[in-house]
Amino acid sequence: MKNFLLVLIIVCFLSSVSAANFSDGFESGIINVADWTEYTTNEGRIRVLDTGSPHEGIYHVGLDDSVGGGNSSQTAIYTKTNFTGATDLNLGVWAKEASDEDDDCPASGAITTMRDCIAYTCDGITWFRLIDLPGLFGSYTEFKSQNIEDNCPTDLNSSFAIGFFQYDNAGFDIDGIYFDAIDINYNAEEAPATAPAPAPPLSGLSLIVVGILPILVIVFGLRRVLNNNMGSPEFGMIPQKTDFKDTIRNAIILIIGLLVMVLFIFALA
Ligand SMILES: [Ca+2]
Ligand SMILES: [Ca+2]
Ligand SMILES: [Ca+2]
Fold this sequence. Notes:
Elements (H helix, E strand, L loop, with lengths): L1 H15 E8 L11 E5 L3 E6 L10 E6 L7 E7 L7 E11 L10 E2 L7 E5 L5 E6 L8 E5 L15 E8 L8 E13 L14 H26 L14 H25 L1
Antiparallel strand pairs: 1-12, 2-5, 3-4, 4-12, 5-11, 6-10, 6-12, 7-9, 8-9, 8-11
Helix pairs in contact: 2-3
The structure holds calcium ion (CA) (3 copies).
């Protein structure tokens, strides 16, 4: 019995989640606005590029600063996917830089302060360092993080996001960081089953048909009772002798008529 309950619990659990995945290698040639929010300060610039030798395919995304020298800029793209209730949330991404100076990511802070790193937010306001990108990685390098949802104090909600950050004061190939082959896999919480739509109320022809049916049955039953007991002289009918079987049969017909009438009233309620 214990084993049966265990299997039942596991089956219930498995049926309430499903494997899901968000991935983007930027092969559409654009930043898909349905998938990403872009963030820049000062001269920050975010582009999908076919230059700079992407890790996979033809394109990757490049975050840099459009004006050499002068102001430094923060850039970021972060996910729009609704990760509500997600578990076993794992990230894989490839990244490389030109000679972007290393600007360390704080352990946590506002989006303006996250510098060169990959970060997450649980509430959409405060960002937390997930992977602090190293000082120099001139060739494409894979970065991974697992069970990211464990870092949040509560179950994930729609405010959760993963962001890819860069900070510096010039463009490629002096500064800037490329990202490619972003892959986020997780177990998604399935939406609860929707309740079946209520049956439409009776109307029109169906209302007339269903309404008349019980009345006809009752009238038919009453006529049989009257004919059997008193006859119908106006129609030239001769009173018949009351028969016990007839009485039972007529009673059943009347009861059926009344039941149909009751069902009809309930259907209208
Ligand atoms: Ca690519
Ligand atoms: Ca930097
Ligand atoms: Ca600049």
